[in-house]
Design goal:
Blueprint: E1 2-8, E2 11-17, E3 25-27, E4 37-39, H1 47-55, E5 65-70, E6 77-83, E7 88-89, H2 93-105, E8 113-118, E9 121-130, E10 133-142, E11 163-167, E12 170-178, E13 182-187, H3 196-204, E14 214-222, E15 225-232, E16 236-238, H4 242-254, E17 261-266, E18 269-275, E19 281-286, E20 288-294, H5 297-302
Parallel strand pairs: 2-5, 6-8, 13-14, 15-17
Antiparallel strand pairs: 1-2, 1-20, 3-4, 5-6, 6-7, 8-9, 9-10, 10-19, 11-12, 12-13, 14-15, 15-16, 17-18, 18-19
Length: 308
């Protein structure tokens, strides 16, 4: 089974291109075709289990999750994303830039303007290639969701509410925002001392967020600059999170801390976010391919990844 590993600011995913006929292929002894290659029916694979296996940095490839690129009836391609723990996510701002790069660099689309179907809706990308390969991408992320019932968050009615969450005697004040997936934005004075490893998992699994949540720890440098660390739902602390950067920008503006256009500084680098006057959020950042390879069919079998 051929794969590619890409990252956006260190937020890395393993990508499987499932746009071709007959599904993915795997290499093993006795296979059909040149070099022992034979098709693996997509229905034979447990995607959640595969995501956990390939994400393992000791016995797998090492990543923050798995992204499938699938045919779509309404867009250039459809994206499914599985977190490192096997749970399926709605969207990923860094991951979708990788989808655009795979489509363009491999000649699957010719236009620099691409539409990708996700569980959060159809999103438009503008790709910026150099020498025929995409280096950056801008994503139309859609309108932020601020109604508690749609985030979802259990805290009553209203837009952009501030939620006080009790964590074993401590209190965290967060701003819930959805960018197609749930986020809890927490503003801090000193990012280096932010309790990411302690509060991240506790907020992720807090009953106020019935679908769990991503958690952003944000320090405001000035009205146009944010610093952020992120605890991603299903993956833990990562180097960057595109939807998280968007949620942080929205929360910072709504609470009077920043303007509508900000640079979000993460451990992996900088993402640029703009919340325009029509209420649409735009995300721009780099994307890079790390490697290509092939998963061995015997490894799939030994890990119990192939269904009977």
């Amino acid at each position: 089974m051929e794969f590619a590993k890409l990252h956006g600011l260190g937020n890395s995913y393993v990508y499987l291109n499932l746009l071709g006929d007959g599904g993915p292929s795997a290499r093993g002894e006795g296979g059909q075709g040149s070099g022992g290659e034979r098709p693996v029916p997509p229905g034979a694979l447990d995607w959640a289990h595969l995501a956990r296996a390939v994400s393992d940095r000791g016995t797998g490839i090492g990543s923050d999750g798995l992204i499938l690129i699938l045919p779509s009836q309404v867009a250039d391609a459809r994206m499914r994303i599985f977190n490192a723990d096997g749970s399926e996510g709605e969207m990923c701002g860094n991951g979708i830039r990788g989808v655009g790069k795979v489509l363009y660099d491999r000649g699957l689309v010719r236009s620099r303007h691409v539409r990708v179907e996700t569980l959060a809706g159809i999103l438009a990308l503008e790709l910026f290639p150099e020498d025929g390969r995409v280096q950056r991408a801008r994503v139309q992320m859609g309108r932020p969701i601020l109604e508690p019932a749609r985030i979802p968050a259990r805290l009553g009615d209203g837009r952009a509410p501030v939620l006080e969450v009790r964590l074993e005697g401590e209190e965290a004040v967060v701003t819930p925002v959805s960018m197609g997936n749930p986020h809890a934005v927490l503003f801090v004075d000193d990012l280096a001392k932010a309790p990411v490893q302690e509060w991240g998992p506790r907020l992720e699994h807090h009953p106020a967020f019935p679908n769990r949540t991503n958690v952003e720890f944000v320090a405001v440098r000035d009205a146009a600059t944010l610093q952020m660390r992120v605890w991603e739902r299903g993956s833990g602390e990562t180097q960057a999170c595109g939807t998280g950067a968007c949620a942080a920008a929205v929360a910072a503006h709504l609470t009077g801390r920043a303007g509508r256009e900000v640079a979000v500084h993460l451990p992996g680098g900088i993402l640029n976010v703009r919340w325009d006057d029509s209420d649409v959020v735009w995300l721009e950042g780099p994307v890079e391919e790390v490697c290509q390879g092939r998963l061995d069919v015997e490894w799939l079998r030994r890990r119990g990844l192939l269904r009977p």
